[in-house]
Amino acid sequence: MFTHLRPVFVAGVALLAGLSAQTSISGSFSKSIGNSYLGGSVSASASLSASTSLSGSAADAAVNLGVHASVLTHSLTVAQLDFNAHNDISRQFQSIGGGFFRPFTVQTARASLRLKFAGIQVDRSLTATGNLGGIPVQTIQLFPQDVAGDIPAILGITVRLSGNAGITFGAGANVILPTGVAEVRPAVSAQTAVVARARVAAVFKPFGVSIAGVGVEVRGTFAETRITGGMTASATNGLSGFLNFQMRAIRVLISIFGELFGFQKTLATPVDWSFGVVDRDLISL
Amino acid sequence: MRSPRTRTEKAAVVVIAAATASALFACLLWEPASVATGEPEAAAHAAHAQPVVHPAAGGRVVRTAAEQRDGYYTAPVGTELTYALQGRCEYSVEQAEAGRQATGFHVHSGFTVVVADRRHDEILVEVRLSNVALASLTPGSAATDPVSGAAAEPFLVRLGTDGSVRGYRFAEGLDGEQRNFMRGLFSAYAHRVPTGAQGTWESTDHDSAGELVARFTLQATGGDAVHVERRKLRYEVMAGNELHPHVLAGRSVATLSRTLGWIEAVDVDERMTLKLVALGVEVDVRATFGFELQTRTTTTPAIPASVWDEPWHPAAGHRENCDGGDADHDRDRWARRLQGENLASLTRALAALLAVEPQDTEAIDAAWQAIIWLVKLRPETAAEVRLMVGAGLDTRLGNMLLSALGAAGTDPAQDVLTAMRADPGLPEAVRRSATMAMFQLARPNERLLSAVAGDIADAPELSGDRALAMLLLGALAPRAGDAPVGGRTAIATLLAFEARARQEGRLDLWLDALGNVGTDAVVPHAQRLTRHEQDSVRGAAYHALRRVVTPQAVALLREGLADPAPSVRLDVITALGEHRSPAAVDALIRAARDDIDPAVRRAGQRALAPFAKPASPARHALAELAETDPDPDTRKAARELLRALR
C-alpha cells in the first residue's frame, strides 16, 4: 500500500535532515562541602543551544547557580540564580483560500532572571530584551534566628549548640534578544560567599550566673564563588563566548574558648574538605 | 562516705532487727494466706525481716516473700532524712586541632528527703536543698553562688515503690537548666531496686540527659543493709533528632538500709563522653558525688493530696528547653568583647577589611557580627547607623551597616530601617538596601509591617522598590505572628493585594510574594491561578509552591509538568528542585526523561544533580539519560553533569 510514495517519503526525510541543524554546549560544576552540621553544596551550570529546521529556528541560553548551606542540620538555599533566555522564529502558513497558503513568521523572545537569597525570592525580572536587573552585593544572616539545640548532660551541664551563617550575594544580568533572528546574547554575573558558624559550649549555669563554660567554635568559609561571562547562541552564527566560574579555597577556623576566663584561642586549621581554587570556564568558545 | 552510726541508732537497729525477726517467725507459723492478703501499711513498715544471705548464692541477698512485696523503700510517711551532699563536676570540650579546655565546679549542700505520702504503688517525696555553696574549679572565677529564689524552693518527686523516678514537680519560676540540676542531683541519689531483685539485672532509668539503660547489681553487706551498684550502659533517648554517639563509664553505689527503709548513703563516680562527630568535638563530663546520711527524724508533711493529680515534669530531662539562658550567655560574652568599642571604631575596622583585596571573608563576617551585637546591646547605635549611612559611605560598607540593623532586629533598629526606607532624601540605592536588610527580621514589628503594606497600597505601580516591598511582605508575613497590619494579619494583608496585582497585570509578582510565605495557606491561591491564560502567571503559580512540601503541592507540581508552555515547565522544575523530597525527585526524573522540549529536559537534569548521590535514583536516572536521551546534546549535558558530580 502506498509503495509508490516511499521514494517521496525518503526524499522528504533526507531533505528535513539536511535542513535541520542543532548545536549546543553545556558545562557544570558541583561540589558538596563538609557535612550537615557545617557545610553545604555549590552547583553551577550553563548551556547554550541553537537550532534550525524547516519549521523555524531557535536559540536558548541558561545559567544556574545554587549555593546551599547547612548549619547544625538546618539547611537552606543561600543563593540561587536562574537565568533563562529563549528566542525563536517559527514559520507558519495562513490560509488565503483556494488551497493557497501565505507563509509568515512569528518570533517569540523572552528572558527571565530569578534570584533567591536565604531561601527568599528577592528579584524576578522578565524581559523581551535588555536589562534584567539584579541585586547589589549584600550580606545578611542565613537564618533570621540562630539555629540552636541543647543536649542536657549530667547534673545540669548543658551542651549547647548554636550556629548561623553570614551570607553574601550579588547578581545581575543583561540580555539582547534581537528581532528578526533567533539569537540570544546574555551577560551574567554573580558572586556568593558563606561564613558558617557552629558553636559547641558546655556550660553550667543553673542559678543565673555562669559558674564556668568552655567551648569550641568552628567557622567554615566556603562557597566564595564568582560567575562572569557573556555568550551568544545564534541560529545563524552559531555559539560563541564564555562563562567563567571561580571558587576560592575553603577555609576553616576553629576557636576554643573559656567563657569566664576572658580568653579565646583561635586556630586556622586545614580540614579534610578543603581544596584548591577552582577556576573553570563552564562554557568557552 | 558513710558515717559511723550513733549509739542510739545502733540500739534502734538491734531493736528493729529483733522485731522483724519475730515478725518473720510469726509469719512462718501463721498461714501464708495472711501474708498474701497484706497488712495495714503502717504494720508493713514496722515489721521487716532481715535479709537471708545464702553462701551458695555467692553473697547475693535472698529476700522473703514479704520483703519482695514491699521493696526496699519502706520508710513510713513522715520520715525525714537529711544528708550531707558533696560533689564535684569536671567537664571539658575537646577538638582534635584546637585542643582541650576544661573547667568544673564543686558543690556542698544539705539534701533533705521527706517521705510525704504513699498511695497504691507510688511514693511521694519532698526534696530540699539547704546551705548550697557552689564554687568554680577555675581559680579566679566566681567564688560561690548561693541558691536563692525559686531554686531554693523544695521540689516533689514521684517514685515507684522500687525507687524509680516517675516524675518531678518543681517550683514555678525554675528554668530548664535549674530543673535539670535538681533532676541530675536526685537521679544520682535515687537507685531503682525492683521487688524481688536478685544478683544483676538491667533496667531502664532516667536522668537529666535522657532515658537510659543501666545494669544494677545487688550485694549484701552482712548487716541490715544492701549495696546497689548502678552502671549506666547507654542512653536510648537524648535531646535532638538523633542519638549522639556517647560513652558512659563509672558507677554509683547506693546503700539501702532495712532499718531505715530507705537510702542511707550514695557514692557516685560517673563519666559521660558525648561525641559530636560531625563537628569533630568531644564533650566529657565527670561527676563525683556523695550523699551521707546525717539525721533521721519524723515530721508531718503538709502536701495536699491533690498534688498527685496535678501536672508533673517528666523524669528525664532531655526535653527541657535550656536555651533561655543562651541569649543572656551570648549577650554577656559580646558585652565583654565590645567593651571600649563604639560604632565608629567597629566601622573603621570593617572598612579596612573591605578595602583589602583579596578580601578576607571570615574576618569581614567577624567584624560585621561585632556591629550586629553593638546594635543589639546599645539601642542608640541604630540611630548612629542612620546618621553614618545618611552622610555617605562606600556602598558595600553602607549596605553591611544597614544589614546589621536587620540582623539585630531590635525595635530601634526596625524603626530606623523603616524610616530610612521611606526617606526621599536618601539615594534610591540606600533605600533599597534598607529594604533588603529587612528580609532578615525574625520578628517584624507592627510599625514596620504597616509601613511596608502602606507603601505597596500607595504606590502608583507595582515595580521597582514596591515590587521588592511586595516580596518582603511575603517573606515577613509568616514571622509576624499576631502583629496586626491595619487590623488584619500580615498574610491577610498580602492576600488582599490580589485585586491590585490583577489590575496591574502583576499577578506573577503577587504569586512570587506568596511563594515567600511558604506555608500551605498558599496552595488554594496558587492552584486557582495554574489555569491562568498568561504563561508568566501560571509559572509563578507553580513556583509559589516551592516551599510547601505537602502531597497536594507535589501533586499540583506534577500536573504542571504537562503545561503547554516550556517556560512554565521550567518554573515547575525549579520549584520541584527546592522541595528536596523523594516525590519531587521522582517528578524531576520524569521531567528529565519525558519532556518533549530538550531545554526542559536539560533543566530537569540540572535540578536532579543536587540529589544525585552515588547509587541514588537521581544518579541512576542521569546515567540512563546520558545514554538514552534522543537528543545528542542532551545526552552530552547529562554526561557533563555526571562528570562534575564525581
Please give a structural write-up.
The complex is a heterodimer of chains A (285) and B (646). Chain A is mainly β and 285 residues long. Helices cover 5% and strands 74% of the residues of chain A. Chain A has one helix spanning 6-19, and strands at 21-34, 38-53, 56-71, 74-97, 100-117, 120-127, 130-141, 147-152, 157-176, 183-204, 212-234, 238-247, 251-258, 263-268, 278-284. In chain A, strands 7, 8, 9, 10, 11, 12, 13, 14 and 15 form a nine-stranded antiparallel sheet that branches. In chain A, a hairpin with a 2-residue loop joins strand 4 and strand 5 (100-117). Among the domains of chain B are: 18-39 and 72-302, Lipovitellin-phosvitin complex, beta-sheet shell regions, CATH 2.30.230; 518-646, Leucine-rich Repeat Variant. In chain B, 44% of the residues lie in helices and 22% in strands. Chain B has helices spanning 7-29, 33-37, 41-46, 65-70, 176-189, 324-337, 343-354, 361-377, 381-390, 395-408, 411-421, 428-438, 446-458, 464-476, 490-495, 498-503, 507-517, 523-529, 535-543, 551-560, 566-579, 582-594, 598-608, 617-628, 632-645, and strands spanning 52-53, 61-62, 79-95, 99-119, 122-136, 155-160, 165-169, 200-206, 211-220, 225-237, 246-257, 262-276, 281-298. An eleven-stranded antiparallel sheet of chain B has the order 7-6-5-4-3-13-12-11-10-9-8, covered by helices on one side. Chain B is globular. Chain B starts with 6 loop residues before the first helix and ends with a helix. At the A-B interface, strand 1, strand 2, strand 3, strand 4 and strand 5 of A face strand 3, strand 4, strand 5, helix 5 and strand 12 of B.
